[in-house]
Every structure is written in structure tokens, then in C-alpha cells.
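Quick question, first post here. What does this chain look like in 3D?
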Amino acid sequence: MYKLPFERETFTFSTLAVPVFLLVGIYGTADRYVRILAGTQQPHVDVRCCWRPLAEAVLAGQPIYVRPAVDNKPPLFELLNVAVAATGRYLLVFFLLVGLANALSAILLWRICARRGASHVGLVASLLFLVSVPAAGGIVVNVRSFAVAGILLSWYVRNPTGRGAAVAVAALFSQHAVFAIPALVYDRVRELDRRSGVRWTTAFALGGSSVVAATFAFVYVVWGSQSFYGAVYWTVGVAGKYATNPVVPSLVGDTDRWLSALYREGMKHLILLVPAAIAVQLALTDRGRERLIPSSNAPLVVTTTLLALSMTVPLFVRAYRAYWLYPLPFLALLASLGYQRLFTVGES
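> Answer (accepted):
Ran it through. C-alpha cells below.
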């Protein structure tokens, strides 16, 4: 069978993958940081209006999640936000961390595939992910880069407690990470009988709830009950109002702007969407699955598709450019499979 360039034995990119991913991930955010220093760009609006003022207020003695130190991001992100501000190099440290988070996502995506005997697919998927991150706004200071890394870490970890803990960390950076939970649970329980599946799911839930409880307990111990209740309110209490806002581009809001935004931003990701659609179409037929990936790795396609679909849910809530970052690694993996099929068509 003809082998793609990244499959040939003489190709050694896998030995350089980690440093290359780190370099590419950090380069994107470093470039943004330099442009801000040069005055050609500004920090993201959330940094200017919300996150940095909140961190500075907390460092000045204001309890977190008590006005004026309020924001609708979960406490793990806000704790990181305050810790970064305490370094005195807010933008530099945050841009470095975001770059590392993007690189970690690429590394995890590769290793998830490598564990299933599809290392070359994972390498291409990781590169597709990293080159697509800027188009999804993933090189600015943001919560989504951390949440995506947490979701991929959860997928990588097979232990139920660890998997639950990792996705809880993701959700404590961005609430939208909860949409990945059904696919992450299905990925493991499909292999188990009913009793084992119940035990696994229980351990998963305990791992996640323990992390959530510990984080909110930390807020209570450090800042008191008012901050604790504020953390609960701003993390989950405003979700209904956020999702049903009638003036934003969403399915239940301004539908014309929503459709326009989906089209405009979707056009930026055609290098992923078209081959990903081909991969999904092939996966729907027995013959297509045989050509797409070995039968032993069919679950990889199923879980990836479920994660891609579930992580597009935020785009129905708000059709923002940044929300494309949520499904991006899963679209990249499906696209890698699609490109593999396109390049090997007609070969035997």
C-alpha cells in the first residue's frame, strides 16, 4: 500500500512532535504579545473590561465574586487570573500559559491517536488544530484554550476518577466543557457490562464532583460565604439568562446574525469542515469504515464525532468566533482521517 509522507519509516517527525508543538503553540501567542507591546493591537476586550480589573481588585483586598470583582467565568479560571496578576507580568505570563495550553492540546490529540495505533493520523490532526487556532481566536488570553486542554486530558485518561477530575477542571475554566461529558462517558462504558458501567460512571462522577467541591470550598475558606455564593451564582446561576439573551447572534436570539456569523466563521475552517464531513460520511457505511480506519479503531471515529457534535452546542448559544475553538481538535482529527482517505483513494 502506498504510504503518505508522514507514514514512511524514514520520517522522524514523531520524535520531534513535542518540541514542534510547543514551539508552534507558544509562537502564536508570543506574536500576539509582541504586537500588543508594539501598539498595533490591544489586549482582548475581556481582559480590559473584566478579567484584569477583577484580579487587581482582589489583590487590593476585594473579595472575589463580590462587586466590583465579579465575572461569569468559573472559579478555577478566576483563581488563575488572580495568580497571574500577582506575578506583575500579567500579559506575558498569560500569553505563555495560553500557548502552552494550545500545545498541550496538540500533544494530547496526537497521543490519543497513537494509543489507538493511529499515530500519523494524530500528528496531522495536531498540526491542523494548531494552524487553525488563530482563526478561532485561540491565541488571545482566553478560557477556552484551557478548557479544551482539560477535555482532551480527560479523553486521554482511562481511569474513571482521573477522567472525571480532568473534565471538571475543564468545566471550572469554561462551563461549556460539560457538553463533552456524555461522549467521554460513552467512550469507556461502551466496553463494559451494565454493572461495571455503573461502577465506572460512579467513579467518574465522584472524581469530577470532588474537584468541583474542592474548588468552591477554597473560595469559601479564603474569601467567605458571600464569595462562595457569588461563585455559585456567577458560574451557574446566570446560565439561563446567558443562553436566552434575545439580542445576541444565537438560535433563540438574533437568528439572522447567528446564521451570518456561522457562515462567516465557518468559511475560515473549510480546511477542516470539508474533509471532516467526508470522514463522517465514510464512517456511516461498513465499506467506508474499512477504508477509513482499521475496524479496531472504529470507536475512535465514533467518539471523535460525538465530541465534535457536542462541542458545537456553544455555537447555538452564541455564534462567536471564539466558540469554534471548542470543537476544533475533534474537527481536526476527523479532517485528518478525511485527508488520509483523499490521498489514498485508488491505492491498494
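The first helix runs from residue 13 to 38.
Residues 1-11 have pLDDT under 50 and may be disordered.
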